Structure formats: C-alpha cells, structure tokens
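We modelled the chain as a single entity of 467 amino acids. Its sequence is:
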Amino acid sequence: MGRKKRNIVLENIELTDAGSLGKCISKKEGEKIIFTKNGVPGDIVNIRIRKKRKSYLEGDIIKYHKYSSKRTNPKCSHFELCGGCSWQNMNYEEQLKYKDKEVNENLSRIGKIGSHKKLPIIKSEKTYYYRNKMEFSFSNSRWITEKEIREEGDILDKNALGFHKSGMWSKVIDIKKCYLQANISNKIRNFIKKKSEELNLDFFDLIKQQGDIRNLMIRTTTTNEIMVLIQFYKYSKKAENLLGLIKNEFNEITSIMYVINNKHNDTIYDLKILCFSGKNYITEKIGELLFKISAKAFFQTNSYQTNKLYNIVKKFANLKGGEIVYDLYCGIGTISLFLSKEAKKIIGIETVEDAVQAAKSNSKLNNISNCKFIHGDVKDIIAKPIEVNEKPDIIIVDPPRNGLEKSVIKSIIELSPNKIIYVSCNSSTQARDIIDLKEFYEIKTSQAIDMFPQTYHVENVVLLEKI
C-alpha cells in the first residue's frame, strides 16, 4: 500500500464567496469546494488542506499572492486568534451584501420559497462598540502563541480573562481590548483581572474544574447603566474584597452581582444571583419604553438596532387595534410591550421564570395593562387553549437559534392565526420551519437586519399570511 498523502498545498486559489459560519469559499467547476478562515472573497492564496471530505475540503491560508479589494485592516490586535469578529477584515458594505445573500439563499434553497417581497438589509449605524452584553472566562491556562514560546521560552504568566479559543474549550485567549462593547467594559475587565491576581484568587482550571473565580459578565445600556456579574467557584473573603474594590473604583457601575457556581458549566439559569451593591437590574430604553434587565434575562444584544428590529415587526403586524397577539419566546416582554398600544391584547409566553417576572414588572413600569405573560414551555402552553374565545389573530415567534419544535409548529397551524411573524437569528432553521408552514401560509415579505457587525451573524424577519 502506498503512503497516505499529507501536507497537500493548493496554489493560486481565488476565494470567490463567503459562506456559512463566516468561512470563505473557493470553487472551480468540477472540483470540490474549499472552506478557509480569515480570507476575504477576492484574495488569491495558497491553501494547506487540513480535512478532506466527500464533497468538500477544509484548509488554512499559508500565503497571500493578492489581497482582495474588499479587505480592510482589522482594528483588533486579537483578530486572527479570537475569531469572535471573523469579518473584521472585510469592509462593512461587503459584509452586508454577504449577509443578505445568505438569507436569500437559505430561504430559496432550504425553504424552497419562490418570489416574495424581499426588502434590502438594514445596516447598523454603529459597527463597533455596539454590544450590550459580553461574557469573559477566567482561566489558569491561557492560550500561548508560538511567537511567545519562541521569543520568551518558559512562560510564567498563564492567567487569562477573555474568550475561549475556537475549537479548544480548555484554552482561553487573554483579551487586552475588545471593540464590541463600550470601552468602559475594557477598563472594568482589565481592572478585575489585575485585582484578582493581586488578591491571589485562583483563576479557574477548566480541566480539573477547580479554582476561585470562573466567569465575568458585563452588561451596559444606552441609559449609561452598567451591571457586573462575577461567577465564583467558591465565595471567600478574597472574593468579597474584590467586589469591594470594583465598587470603589467604578462609580459608573450601578449593579454589582455575584453567583456561586460549582457546576460543570457556566450557565446561571438554575442558580441564585446575589446582589453585592446597587440594584439587581439595569434599565434600558427602547423607543419610549423602559425595560428592567436582570442578570438572567435575554435581551437583544445590540440596543442601538433593537428599535429598528421591533419597528419591522410592528410594520409587518399592521395592527388595527382589535387584534389578539401571541408573542412566543417573549423574553422580558420587549416585543409585547412595544406593540401593546396597537393591539387589543398580547399574550407572551416564556420558559425562563425570571424573564416572565421581569416582563410583568416592565408592564407595570410602563403602565401597560393589556399584556399577559405566562411562564412555561411554549410547546406545552399553546397545545391547549390559553384563553376562552381568544384565539390569536397574529402569532409572533422569536425562538432560539435551533428554531421551532415540530409540536410548536403543529399547534400554531391549529391555532390558525391570520399572520405569523417569524423573527430569527438563524435564517437556515427559519427557512426549515417555513417548509412545515407552507401548506397553510404564504411568505409575503422578508427583511434582514444587521444586529452583529464584524461577524457573520444576521437577523431576519419574515411575514407569513394564511392562504
């Protein structure tokens, strides 16, 4: 038997497209598709093949012969390592084109959706410093680059506070400056790392599952409120001292929270959140409405675009004042309350109990009385009548990335609303779900909106009307 070929390098390959998960694509007629990272359509490169599959190849760019005219210089020094902003090397107008193209292709290829009114993608005015929530991991085993090893030899500083290395759950990249959240976030994160080390708090060991401190969440609002939540593996005098130092250093922080988490994951939904200082929530303003956001609550990550997103929903709903609306996966009630003035009644359903309590609180905060919020699994709640003689005229869904469960789609069809408005952060699962609705509903309009500049993620809203 001959030896297996290794280290295959393909030369002078032109990258022709950008595909799912932000990867660049090269495709010559009659040849396999090649997926690569860090490229931009229009680059001409050499690619070292890393994986061979039946219908495609995956590889790494090892040389650039020509740079694409679509390129721009990434702002972030962590760009190639981090991977969180995988399109930071592509100019923004091109990012929008590829996002819109992906939505269109998913709707036509997966959803088998023909002609409909496709509105042009709505861009984001802010392309940096737009996120209102960031999470960072503490680690005692930071990602060390080959350059560091080559130039410094033995590395003593192994602590990190940053993001997990893509594909390596046990390694964390230490982040000095991130361009996604307001710059105060960088100051807070760097201060917390420095003081944690000075207090000799053990950064978390992801393999051994031990240490003092494991995770940091920072939430900000356009109303200039800030929440800091720290996950400790165990609480101690050192941990209490750290929280005190944060309080004394940053008057801008309006909510300092902590949680004790000795599970094998960082999720906090089943844990008790404790308030060290300030309020146990922060307040955001969308349009004329105020929203209290708790530590566990889901809220759209880009506050600056949220008003635009909800106005798309409002336009598609075209409410006249007498409608019953169901808002499935309603979170803290943002869409429900945003539409409340135009509807007779809105019923929001949400699985996270804290979010439902926040929705009720937000309803009172804004003096809104025609919204009802129900806690429970969406598929269980809508499988039986919610209100006698109050079947919905419109159903709005804004599910997680994996889309709607089959039983939820079945119940929606049985409820037979005149309109369905499907808000999605994953147009491929959105398109898949539309297939199951197509026998009864026709897609009228779709509208993409960029909530996540510098990344390949895109939000899409679809209006379906009963046939």
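As a brief sanity check on the tokenised model: The chain has eleven helices and 23 strands. The first strand starts at residue 9 and ends at 14.
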